[in-house]
């Protein structure tokens, strides 16, 4: 093909795409354009344009991208459709950041987004970050460049191994994946993606691999009716087969009932509160569902697990009946399966057959949490049970433990500063700083994201949500850098909100590109940078297990305020050395029209007032033998 012919064809294709995009926009969007016959049923389309139309039909108009040589074709389609006002593309500096922002957007607002990368290292970065939506159950599209299908020789950046479909095999281990091997397989790929990212109970990442030679191919007379729409239906209550009667009888016979709330309980707050009173039970929550019942509710024993609370872990250790609602039984949530040593029976409600049968001695109720719990409550009422009005011995004992836990928390807040030799002065403790900031966030209706590590663990022990949607923390993958990257979601959303990112110095320095991308795209939020010059969660674990910390701290001084202020548009602030000065800085940050960073030097050391403490077991390091031995003794 001559250069002239190439440029003429390129210009003609751009003209056709531009006219089509403008017509769709004028009609009011893709669905309206189809309904009004603005778009005919059959069209000649490139694969990449058909893909964009298919995603628009699924309600995806937000694309977070790091373009490369493996994604230039789809990038051109998106450029034209953005100019027509049909979608928005956000170019960022890290595929990990792109993934975290898309996951946070879905988690906080319910809005969908697609992450776009090139082939090779970029795709692998996105794969690593996709462990967050995979672990926490949120649907995100990933559009990834892939090696060509004609195998003309090794493609640059593909896995250097002479075997077909290496990326497809690799990405299929994290979630559902599809390689667009031929143009007309697109409708199938779109349907499988739709079923994955919009799965109503446990959504996840979907990886669409786009071979570079397929993207620009033209499909003649493509039938737009083949583009899938409609979401998978929710499941109903669990089928009976006598299970409700068996569960109700177990509840009536038990004396000490504990309800474990996991991610599958997110939408079942009213049913949970009704059941707690009927069953005379207390509840503990996973970090991902803080707020599903109010922190102050008298039956809420707060967090339970390896890094739980005194009250939550007491309830775990003492319960004779466990009711699990929407939980996967992650190692830290149930102390590596040793958390319920006195439980004689388990009632498990889940939509996943593996999760619902996780424990032995289980009455499994395979169904949607809310409707299933409502039917179980009805089964109790049919047996004469009414809401318990008096305080039972079980509730009284648990309430005493909850008061003891509240006293432990209050003792940390009463001593907000401690001397730290690294800083050479008294500085704020993490508990005091987190308490002040989270109270401020709740009072100002600000969303709180928590990064992995010590800040996260102290955070979910401290936060006191009175409803859902106030705190978001990744309890499945515990991904460092998630919180700061999640701030970008404030720019992606059509439902504006302000957010705080609670992040340690280690997590922040893994994802500092948010300072640039936040300014570029108009993020509104503040990074609270808790600086103790170490990975404190791991230092503490090393010291607890072996008496020494090793290779988890450094001596490098960083002026984070100057770093933040070096990016035009970012406001860098110092928190000072009191909770009052921290609140003043938060007020200044909130008044700033963009992204802010508050540097908070914090204490690390042996003083127990510097942290919230550990109340459970965990199958790690030199604890493993004892933990595993206990697990097999319990046999649950």
Describe, in plain words, how this protein is organized in 3D.
The chain has 636 residues and is an alpha/beta fold. The chain folds into three domains: 3-152 and 163-226, Thiamin diphosphate (ThDP)-binding fold, Pyr/PP domains (Rossmann fold, 3-Layer(aba) Sandwich); 243-398, TPP-binding domain (Rossmann fold, 3-Layer(aba) Sandwich); 415-605, Thiamin diphosphate (ThDP)-binding fold, Pyr/PP domains (Rossmann fold, 3-Layer(aba) Sandwich). It has a six-stranded parallel beta sheet with strand order 3-2-4-5-7-6, with helices on both faces. Strands 11-10-9-12-13-14 form a six-stranded parallel beta sheet, with helices on both faces. Strand 17, helix 17 and strand 18 form a beta-alpha-beta unit. The longest helix has 25 residues, at 3-27. The protein starts with a helix and ends with a helix.
